[in-house]
Amino acid sequence: MKNNLKNLLAILALLVIFTGCKKKDYSLGDLSAPTNIIVNAEIVGQDATHPDGDGSGDVKFIITADNALAYKIDYDANNPVDLVNIPGGSVTKKYTTLGTNTYTVTAVVYGKGGTASTVSKDITVRSDFTPDPAIVSNLTNDATKTWVVDENVAGHFGVGPWDPTVTTPVWWAAAPHEKAACCPCFYSTTFAFKKVSAGNYTLQVASPDGAFTKTGSLTTLPGIPGSGAEACYSYGGGTNTFSFVPASSGASGSTGTSILLAGNNTFIGYGSLLKEYEIFELTPTYMYLRVQGTETGNAWYLKLKPL
Fold it and tell me: Is the whole model's pTM more than 0.85, yes or no?
């Protein structure tokens, strides 16, 4: 009797093990990619007299699609791809390149299981902007004025999130002279802003000790090595034009004006930044800038003084 019972228990145990090891079937359901994508671009102020808008540069985008779960958009195919998340598929973008310009906009719509569909369209937008004369005068002295990073003050360099509601370097801020030991070029590089004529400006960068930057795809400067630590790297200096544009970040507490650099061989302060430097404060003796880093999601802060 005991043997029969043992045999029965052994059979039941095998059945439990077999049942527990049985392969389960999973189904993701319908993985149809989004369809019927429509990108509606309303250029603010557009009418028969102003076909490219009212000069504000504002465009309201509304993206719709069937089977859509999330939306992203790249605002300009002429720049590196930068897909921005759009909750609900609706957003307003301010284009700041002066004059009338055509942009190729690409929308990416995501569906179940990571499926995605893409559509592009061209829009033509006009952006007009006249900076406050005090900003021009304080920056250039209405002729030429040279600036350097002010190593003597706390927070002359710092970083925080690229977020219009956060306007201080909450992640890290440099102490006075903090980069002197590793990267003296950060403090010896000069930035000469020149007013050539009304509406025409140039920036000349002179860096006898090299450029303070990161390497590879994180730098905006030519000739920097493909890999290496943040440091000073050989850089021959350069001159490019720049323009004043309305700030595109939407951040509060600034002048609403940005310095937009042309070309790829000039920079301000740190060579791993994008080209639009928002002016938070500018007096004859002090300049405080905020700029997006080449690592998306980072906002860098710079304090400069006249040389």
Answer: no
Q: Is 205 strand, coil or helix?
A: strand
Question: Which tens digits make up the pLDDT trace of 74-120?
Answer: 999 887 677 888 989 999 988 877 789 999 999 999 999 889 999 99
The helix (run of H) or strand (run of E) holding residue 78 is none
Closest CA to 70 of 91, 87, 93: 87
d(C-alpha 252, C-alpha 126), whole Å? 24
> Which residues, 6 or more positions from 245, have their beta carbon under 8 angstroms from its beta carbon?
96, 97, 98, 127, 129, 257, 258, 260, 276
249 pairs with which residues across the strands? none
Phi, psi of 37 (to 5 degrees): -75, 130
Give the number of C-alpha atoms closer than 13 A to the C-alpha of residue 113, restricted to the C-beta side. Answer: 8
> C-alpha dihedral over 145, 150, 153, 155, to 10 degrees?
110
- Residues composing the chain: 307
- As a whole number of angstroms, the distance between CA 296 and CA 63 comes to 23
Residue appearing with tokens 């300049």: 287
Domains, the chain, with CATH or none = 35-127 (2.60.40.10), 133-306 (2.40.128)
The amino acid at 14: L
In the numeric block, the tokens 């001159």 are attached to 239
- Containing 289, the helix (H) or strand (E) segment is strand 286-293
- Dig out the tokens for 1 from the structure: 């009797």
